[in-house]
């Protein structure tokens, strides 16, 4: 089967939309846990609503990822580095699931409702429990920092491919036509 | 691979470093408080702990016990709010009665403030309220409240409160006058059952037509003051309440006061005039009281911004500040329970 040179359009749209969403979620989370200002309540509501959207989005994205052929990394990249690249992508998926799930479960353990805007409220899947809240609350913070680290490495690697190596890897996600090699 | 001028390489690396380093630095800065005002939730809870946290306990209102019972609504609030617990019906609650302060073994009778917190309803209809004995706050903003706590805390050098500092604080904050008048006229009663517990902050009731009405509420006692208590008993009020509930349920009238257009619902330091409309929504009937370690109220963060449909928060800056501070205290004590640093009985 011939491999495409770029990701499917649906995969690219999901990638950039979620990049924006996750960065906003990280900034919102880090700012709101400190803030005593009146906007805290509003931002918390948005954080939870968009967090549930991020969970739905990563499910859709995983399905798209599994159903579409992905571009191969160029042969110029050593096998070891390819393996690291793939592992980092699956770690990103793991973090993208762990973030909203730990958020949802922490709210369950606290007995707090998870409302998505004014549309609907998610059911509680876990019982109210102080240690359980402690676990998911700490997970939410730890995984957030792991996600931040992965994102920074990911961006650095993508820019390295795009600006220094110029091997078409960055373009496989931006979708821009590559010049003939 | 495409050819590129080697001279362009340093510039390209600089762009990568700038982009990634810049984003990373921005994230670190925001996590470290960039854009926050002078007092954060963490600062507040640090001050409440006073450098000596009682592991596993709430950082404020640390000493208390669990209660359970039901809210028996008479339906009179139904025209004003779609919240299901205001229909003529009864809704079970879990609650907590406590005294202010960070010390879980403080003597009951020394506490300046007594409290009643309730959590009722499920999911989108969950309603939580944490009420105190004063009818008003001393100040209007979390920053000023932080200053107030600082002024009232003992001097680290002498271990005593500094009257000079307290006087200076009140002089700078004339809005504290209503609170101080209340304080001067208040005599603590001989039971948790005979106190008035106030929402202090105002909230909106919202009806089916989307009309908003600003209200405050208070739990009013339905029984008379009892016999004086033994002041040597550090748990005098707890024991009195346990005995009382053992023999009969303890009821409070939940009374709502309606603001008029002349009242500022965002200012918790001002009392509303006594001619404002009052309505009894129903009774809070406490049927059970157990020590904290045996009840299930310790799981609950009584964040007063958990409101059912048919109720909403006002823009009162003190009210809005409560969520993040309660969450920080809740996070700390939950982590301590997870790591099993909390004592057995908590
Ligand atoms: C991709 C999804 C998400 C990301 C990237 C994210 C990120 C964050 C971050 C970085 C924080 C600050 C943590 C700290 O500084 O300790 C935070 C806090 C929080 N998140 Fe999320 N979050 C996500 C989804 C969710 C969801 C789905 C919920 C709930 C439904 C949620 C609820 C919360 C809450 C309640 C807090 C504040 C906890 C507190 O006040 O102690 N998050 N989030
Ligand atoms: C900016 C203002 C305030 C701050 C920062 C603050 C902070 C806190 C904190 C950190 C807790 C411990 C929460 C937990 O670990 O679960 C707490 C508990 C409590 N607060 Fe406040 N508070 C504020 C204003 C008020 C007001 C205005 C009232 C009363 C109307 C009030 C009543 C209570 C009560 C009753 C509890 C104990 C609830 C329980 O039994 O768990 N607080 N507060």
Automatic annotation (TrEMBL), chain A:
The biological processes this protein is annotated with in GO are: respiratory electron transport chain
Localization per Swiss-Prot or TrEMBL: Cell membrane
Which keywords label this protein? Cell membrane, Electron transport, Heme, Iron, Membrane, Metal-binding, Transmembrane, Transmembrane helix, Transport
The family database entries (InterPro entries) matched by this protein are listed as: Cyt_b561_bac/Ni-Hgenase, Cytochrome_b561_oxidase, Di-haem_cyt_TM
- Cofactors demanded by this protein: heme b
Q: Which GO terms describe its molecular function?
A: electron transfer activity; heme binding; metal ion binding
Indicate how the chain sits in the lipid bilayer: Multi-pass membrane protein
Domain Cytochrome b561 bacterial/Ni-hydrogenase residues, every copy = 7-175
- Gene Ontology terms: cellular component: plasma membrane
Spans through the membrane: 45-64, 84-106, 142-164
* Similarity field: Belongs to the cytochrome b561 family.
Quote the protein name from its UniProt record: Cytochrome B
* Organism in which the protein naturally occurs: Aliidiomarina iranensis
Per the UniProt record, the lineage of the source organism begins with:
Bacteria, Pseudomonadati, Pseudomonadota, Gammaproteobacteria, Alteromonadales
From TrEMBL, chain B:
Q: Which cofactor does it need?
A: heme
**Where would I find the Catalase core domain in this sequence?**
20-346
- Which keywords accompany this UniProt record? Heme, Iron, Membrane, Metal-binding, Oxidoreductase, Peroxidase, Transmembrane, Transmembrane helix
Listed SMART domains: Catalase
For this protein, the parts annotated as crossing the membrane are: 12-34
rRNA-binding among keywords:
no
Q: Which CDD domains match?
A: srpA_like
Sequence positions that bind heme: 326
Q: Which family does it belong to?
A: Belongs to the catalase family.
Q: What is this protein called?
A: Catalase-related peroxidase
Q: Which organism is it from?
A: Aliidiomarina iranensis
């Amino acid at each position: 089967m011939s491999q495409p040179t770029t990701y499917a359009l649906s995969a690219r749209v999901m990638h950039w939309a979620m990049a924006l969403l996750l960065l906003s979620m990280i900034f919102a989370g880090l700012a709101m846990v400190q803030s005593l200002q009146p906007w805290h309540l509003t931002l918390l509501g948005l954080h939870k609503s968009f967090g549930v959207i991020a969970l739905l989005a990563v499910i859709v994205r995983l399905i798209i990822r599994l159903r579409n052929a992905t571009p191969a990394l160029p042969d110029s990249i050593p096998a070891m580095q390819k393996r690291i690249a793939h592992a980092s992508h699956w770690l990103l998926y793991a973090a993208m699931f762990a973030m909203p799930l730990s958020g949802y479960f922490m709210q369950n353990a606290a007995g707090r409702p998870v409302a998505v805007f004014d549309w609907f409220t998610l059911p509680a899947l876990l019982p109210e429990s102080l240690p359980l809240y402690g676990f998911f609350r700490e997970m939410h913070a730890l995984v957030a920092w792991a996600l931040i680290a992965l994102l920074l490495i990911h961006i650095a690697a993508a820019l390295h491919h795009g600006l220094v190596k110029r091997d078409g890897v960055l373009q496989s996600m931006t979708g821009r036509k590559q010049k003939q090699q | 691979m495409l050819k590129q001028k080697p001279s362009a390489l340093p510039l390209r690396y600089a762009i990568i470093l700038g982009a990634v380093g810049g984003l990373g630095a921005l994230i670190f800065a925001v996590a470290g408080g960039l854009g926050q005002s002078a007092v954060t939730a963490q600062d507040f809870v640090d001050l409440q702990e006073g450098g000596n946290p009682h592991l596993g306990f709430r950082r404020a209102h640390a000493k208390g016990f669990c209660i359970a019972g039901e809210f028996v609504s008479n339906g009179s609030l139904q025209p004003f709010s779609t919240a299901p617990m205001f229909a003529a019906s009864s809704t079970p609650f879990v609650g907590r009665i406590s005294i202010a302060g960070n010390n879980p073994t403080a003597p009951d009778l020394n506490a300046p403030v007594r409290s009643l917190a309730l959590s009722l309803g499920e999911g989108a209809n969950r309603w939580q309220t944490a009420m105190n004995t004063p009818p008003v706050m001393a100040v209007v903003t979390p920053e000023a409240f932080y200053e107030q706590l600082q002024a009232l805390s003992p001097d680290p050098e002498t271990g005593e409160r500094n009257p000079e500092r307290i006087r200076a604080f009140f002089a700078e904050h004339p809005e504290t006058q209503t609170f101080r008048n209340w304080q001067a006229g208040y005599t603590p009663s001989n039971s948790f059952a005979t106190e008035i517990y106030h929402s202090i902050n105002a909230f909106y009731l919202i009806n089916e037509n989307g009309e908003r009405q600003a209200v405050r509420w208070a739990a009013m006692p339905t029984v008379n003051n009892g016999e004086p208590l033994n002041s040597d008993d550090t748990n005098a009020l707890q024991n009195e309440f346990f005995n009382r509930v053992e023999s009969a349920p303890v009821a409070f009238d939940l009374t709502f006061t309606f603001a008029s257009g002349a009242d500022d619902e965002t200012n918790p330091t001002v009392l509303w005039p006594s001619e404002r409309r009052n309505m009894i929504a129903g009774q809070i009937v406490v049927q059970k009281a157990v020590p904290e370690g045996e009840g299930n109220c310790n799981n609950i963060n009584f964040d007063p911004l958990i409101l059912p449909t048919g109720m909403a928060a006002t823009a009162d800056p003190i009210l809005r500040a409560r969520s993040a501070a309660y969450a920080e205290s809740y996070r700390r004590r939950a982590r301590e329970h997870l790591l099993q640093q909390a004592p057995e009985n908590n």
